[in-house]
Amino acid sequence: MGRAVTVATCALNQWALDFEGNLERIFRSIDIAKSKGARYRLGPELEICGYGCSDHYYESDTLLHSFQVLEKLLESPATQDIICDVGMPVLHRNVRYNCRVIFLNKKILLIRPKISLANAGNYRELRWFTPWSKARHVEEYFLPRIIQEVTGQETVPFGDAVLATKDTCLGAEICEELWAPNSPHIEMGLDGVEIFTNSSGSHHVLRKAHARVDLVNSATAKNGGIYILANQKGCDGDRLYYDGCAMISMNGETVAQGSQFSLDDVEVLVATLDLEDVRSYRAEISSRNLAASKVNPYPRVKVNFALSCPDDTAVPTCMPIQWRHHSPEEEISLGPACWLWDYLRRSKQAGFLLPLSGGIDSSATACIVYSMCHQVCLAVKNGNADVLADARRIVNDETYIPEDPREFCKRVFTTCYMASENSSQDTCHRAKLLAEQIGSYHINLNIDAAVKAVVGIFSVVTGRTPRFSVYGGSSRESLALQNVQARIRMVLAYLFAQLTLWARGMPGGLLVLGSANVDESLRGYLTKYDCSSADINPIGGISKTDLKNFIQYCIENFQLTALRSIMSAPPTAELEPLVDGQVAQTDEADMGMTYAELSIYGKLRKIAKAGPYSMFCKLINIWKEICTPREVAFKVKHFFRMYSVNRHKMTTLTPSYHAENYSPDDNRFDLRPFLYNTSWSWQFRCIDKQVNAL
């Protein structure tokens, strides 16, 4: 009868403009799909060139090389007898589209352009592509000559159509279209499409995975059908980590789940499903059938091919499964760790250097690197030859096998405690103990000589010597002296990153890791060009609250007992003089607000789009049990003054792993001025008027 269809989807670790590597990974996914009996293979969005090409999409080279890769795929025996669905940019009548190219046996069946483009937050697709606005309309696309020579076709269908095989009907969605209120799968399902496909370039955000899973399952819960989702995975060249989660769903239930975080460059999911289950599910939904009788039909591209076999009575089909979600602490442990591994191996460096202060932020960063080492050892143990080859190249040893995370950490991770006369013995001890427990190569040094030399130059030139406020100096003098210490640490971090391995008789250099959290960046509680200035920052998109929970997770799961004292210590920059040998400076006192308050300000400012007045109006209700309206007004004004005074620091913020939707990253996610009128006179006057009325 032909009712059991076998389909494959995948998560690929593609890299922007790495056409050779991208092609190899696509071929591997097709080989795996075919070896498991699949007759249809779906890949991620723009997988041929890599999703994150950005302004390279403007270049004709990107289009040319994409077609050259497509030529290799079309002419290869590996792509025979399986419908292949790949993503690439296509120029049609001088307009650039984000497309799926679907082919079978050296013939292109359909080029399907994206209808709804992602253009919020980190996405800028409207900058490079135009959405296809002609619903259920197909035009002729004239193929480039290199493709014509392989396919023997001069033109192929281009537009909003579906595929009709011998046994079923397939319709494509592309990423954002699943999230749109008028998703194409609604109308396609009413028109008899039984298999929906979605090729995505969807990045990780803490606590987001369930939303994607719920959307996929709900797509077929009301309308019936099979939904197949492919996604990019890994770091393809910027701040985002694409988190896989390839999946297959039927009639509102998940039947196959891919991993969210792994070091596997190629992951393929295959499922065999019964089309009659879709048909019987739809048969009893009378409201769906009434709507289907009035639907405007899609153009159908007939395909002389079946996804099922004629005699499939005894073929076992997949059953529903329960999706397992990671906790936020697990997400922090795994996502940034995988992102760091991709960055390390693709930058061809020999490891990382981290200024380890003994505080929560730098300790959390160290734990993420340690988690990366765990993931590498686990991948090698599970037979991942790619990870083994990368690890050997990084440590410059062709016979090396990473088996112990602490031993591997010693080879690729250097930590450095940079003491000053303002540092306490407690933080020095905590940093040393943590370094011992994770296995990093640890350095202790003192920066006082460098600080005195820099301040000495100023004194020689001006004839004046600045003093800390506790010794009678002004706040301006004290802040300048703190900043000198912080900036000296940045200079030394880069010096040691470049030359530490040289001094040890080893080749290569180290990437410098930053460790400023998302809340401190939002408030601007950091020195411009201090140790927050680094090559990359794995925690720059993570809140202090989540980092504390992550530290507790590491205590329990990695048995890092050194973290207990770090957790209990008050956060401090240790830039002001000690009082009786003890730290007198704390972060929250310096900032004039708590980290918990900062998270609330950040979410209201970015996610709720609240300016000073709207934030005040929301907080007088949220905090009505703990603050008077006048106190709320003071807090809101203080936050916006500090935020706007320090906004210029975001223009030089170290590239950070994107994990929170209230990130203040000025690069492209949070686009705002960096020179404000910091008095906010009109806005604050509106607040004062309400305070007086209340």
UniProtKB/TrEMBL annotation:
This is Glutamine-dependent NAD(+) synthetase. Its EC number is 6.3.5.1. GO terms for cellular component: cytosol. The keyword Cell membrane does not apply. Pathway: Cofactor biosynthesis; NAD(+) biosynthesis; NAD(+) from deamido-NAD(+) (L-Gln route): step 1/1. Homohexamer. Keywords: ATP-binding, Ligase, NAD, Nucleotide-binding. GO terms for biological process: 'de novo' NAD+ biosynthetic process from L-tryptophan. In the C-terminal section; belongs to the NAD synthetase family. GO terms for molecular function: ATP binding; glutaminase activity; NAD+ synthase (glutamine-hydrolyzing) activity. Residues 5-275 form the CN hydrolase domain. NCBIfam families: nadE. InterPro entries: C-N_Hydrolase, C-N_Hydrolase_sf, Gln-dep_NAD_synthase, NAD/GMP_synthase, NAD_synthase, Rossmann-like_a/b/a_fold. It is an enzyme of class 6 (ligase).
